[in-house]
Amino acid sequence: MSEIKKEEVTKDHSHVQHVEPYTPQFGTMIPSGTQKFMRTCVLWQIVRFVAINIKMSVLILKSHH
Amino acid sequence: MARLVILGAGVAGHTAASFAAKWLGNEHEVVMVTPNAKWNWIPSNIWVGVGAMSKEDVTFDLAPVYAKTKVIYKQAKAVSLNPDGSQTIDKSFVTIEYTGQGKEGESEELEYDYIINATGPKLNFGATPGLGEGTVMGEHTVSVCTADHAIHAAHELDICIEKMKSGSRQKFLIGTGHGMCTCQGAAFEYIFNIEHKLREEGVRDMADMIWISNESFLGDFGMGGLHFKMGGFITSSKVFAESLYAERGMDWIIGAHVNKVEKGMVTYESLDGSIDTQDFDFAMLIPPFAGVGMKAYGKDGSDITDSVFAPNGMMKVDADYTKTSYADWEPSDWPKTLQSPAYKNIFAAGIAFAPPHPISKPMKSPNGTPITPTPPRTGMPSAMMGKAVVSSIVDMMTGKTTEPTHTSCMAEMGAACVASSGKGLLSGTAAAMTVFPIVPDFKKYPGTGRDINGTTGEIGLAAHWVKHLLHHAFIWKAKLKPGWTLIPE
Ligand SMILES: Cc1cc2nc3c(=O)[nH]c(=O)nc-3n(C[C@H](O)[C@H](O)[C@H](O)COP(=O)(O)OP(=O)(O)OC[C@H]3O[C@@H](n4cnc5c(N)ncnc54)[C@H](O)[C@@H]3O)c2cc1C
Fold it and tell me: Is the ipTM value over 0.90, yes or no?
C-alpha cells in the first residue's frame, strides 16, 4: 500500500518522491523536476493550449465523413 | 410532411435534433422523445462529484431550447418499436410512456418515417450483487454517472474529508464495478479529482487510494491501449497511466471483475482466477452499461426484438456481428452508416448502437469469467454519430437519395479525452489525450495501429483550460446559442 507522507504533499508534486522498490509503482517512469515545472509553467502551457486545440481541430476534421 | 423521431436527448440525440430542426425547416416534423427534463453535460459531473460544480452548472432545461426551435418535445421514454406497424396502425410507430409534462404514466403510439435511437446506456447496477438493483444504485458505493449521483458522491466525500481532518484514515476505491464495464476514463478522471481535492484540503496523507479496474493493464481504456510520442519514444498508455498513479501515490488492482459489493468491502475475481476482497471507506464504481431494453414487435404482434436489438439491448446496425475470434477482427467490422440492417428507416447513434465486438483483447479467468473492457463510446464520437446519422436522414427525407449519405465509423474517427485533476486554472494538472483512429488499424498504421501524429498524450495546466473551454463551449452549443453551429462536435 503506497502511503503518502505529510511532507510529500505540502509542495504538490514539487520534487521526485520516494518510490518503494519492487512495488508496481517502481516499474514506471516518474516525472523529473523540469517536467513538473513545465506542466505548470504558464507561458509554456499557453503554447501547449494552442497546440492541443490545433491537434483536436485536426482530429475533428479528419473524423467527419 | 414526414416525421423524424429521435429517442434520447443526450449527447448524440440532442446533436441530431438540433441539426434536424435547422436543416429540415418547416417542411418536416422533428420530435424528441426523452424521459429527462434537463440536458446534462455528463463529463463535468466529475467536478460535481468533488463539490467543484453544482448541478445547475452542468444541466439546463430542455423545454425552452426546443421551444425556440421546431423540435416537438415529449418528455417520455420509448418502450417498444413497431417497425411494420400493427393490426390497427399501418405506419411504423414507437410506443412511448410519458415521464413528465403532466402526463406521467400515459402511453402514446407515435408514428414515424425515420427514427434515431440515441437512448444511451442503461446503468446496469444490478449486474453486480450489492452494487444496486436494476438501474438503481445501491447504498454501499457512489457514482458520478448522473448529476444527482455526483451530488451524492460529493456529499459522501465531504464526510470522509471531515473524518480525515479528525484523524481517521480513509480508504478510497475507485474504478469499475464489473468485469464487462466501459467508461474507465470517467473513473480515471474522478480518482485524480479526489486526489487533488484531498491535497487541497490538506488530508492527502490520511488517505489510501486504490484503483480497481477490469483492464488487463493500466491505460487500456477499453481501446486495447494506445501509443504516443513522449520523450523521444513511442510510449504506451500503460507507462503513461502507471506514471500518473505512481506520481500520486495510488495503488492499482487490474484485471478485476467485482462480483460482490457489501458495506465497506468488495469481492473480486482476478484474471488469474483468484478471489480477493478489498475494503474501503469510500467507493465509486462505474456500473456496466447495457441497452435501455426496448422491445420490438412485428405487425402481427410477434416479438421481433432479436432482429432489431443485440442480446445486450443495444441496437443492431451495419456492423459485422459474426466475428467471434480476436484474430479475425478487422476495422471493417465496425458500422459506418449506423442504419439498422432490418429496417432502412431506423438508425442508432452514440452508446445505443451495438458494437460488433470489444476493441480490447477478450480475456477470461480460468473459471471462465469474462474480464474485458467493452468499447468506449465517448462524447465526441457520440456527437459525430448523431450528426452523421441525421445528415443521412435529412438527405433521405428530402428525397435526395434513398441510401445513407454520411458515415461515422469508430475505425475512421478519432476521440479526444481530457482528464482533469481539479478545476483550478493555475493549480492541478490534467491529462489531454487524442487517439486516431479509435479502433486500431494495423494494416493502415503498421506498428501501433494508430496514426502516431494524431495519437497524443500530455499532462499540464493547458489541458485544464481545454476542459474548461469544452465545458462552456458544449453547453453553449447545446443551448443553441448564437454561433452554435460553429462549435464542432
Ligand atoms: C461520469 C462520466 C464522465 C464522462 N466524461 C467524458 C469525457 O470527459 N469526455 C467524453 O468524451 N465522454 C465522457 N463521458 C462519456 C459521455 O458522457 C458519453 O459518451 C455520452 O454521453 C454518450 O452519448 P449518448 O447520446 O449515447 O448517451 P447519453 O448522453 O447518455 O444520452 C442518452 C439519452 O437517452 C435518454 N433515454 C434513456 N432511455 C430512454 C428511452 N427509453 N427513451 C428515450 N430516451 C431515453 C436519456 O435520458 C438520455 O437523455 C463520460 C461519461 C460519464 C458517465
Answer: no
| CB neighbourhood size of B139 (10 A) | 9
Bond preceding residue B83 cis, omega within 30 of 0:
no
pLDDT for the residue numbered B150: 98
Ligand 1 neighbour B291 (Cβ under 6 A): no
Query: Is B190 in contact with B46 (CB distance < 8 Å)?
Result: yes
- Atom 20 in ligand 1: residue holding the nearest Cα: B379
> Is B237 within 8 Å of B221 (Cβ atoms)?
yes
pLDDT number for residue B425? 86
CA of B121 to the centre of ligand 1 (A): 7
pLDDT tens, residue by residue, B273-294: 999 999 999 999 999 999 999 9
Nearest chain A residue (CA) to B198: A9
What are the boundaries of each domain within chain A?
29-65
Q: Which of B119, B347, B390, B438 to mutate to test the pocket of ligand 1 (most atoms within 8 A of CB)?
A: B119
Distance CA A11, CA A6 (A): 10
Which one, of B374, B435, B428, lies nearest residue B47 by Cα?
B428
Q: Provide the whole-model pTM.
A: 0.94
Mean pLDDT of B356-382: 95
A2 to chain B nearest CA, in Å? 6
Q: What angle do CA B341, B371, B385 make, to 5 degrees?
A: 35
Sequence-ordered list of residues with C-beta below 8 angstroms from that of A61, at least 6 positions apart, any chain: none
User: Where do the structural domains in chain B lie, given as residue ranges?
Assistant: 3-122+289-397
CB atoms within 10 A of CB B189: 25
Q: Which CATH architecture has domain B3-122+289-397?
A: 3-Layer(bba) Sandwich (3.50)
Which among B300, B407, B340 has a CA at the least distance from the CA of B114?
A: B340
Cα dist from B489 to A64, B32, B78, whole Å: 9, 19, 26
Q: Which atom of ligand 1 is nearest to the CA of B190?
A: 1
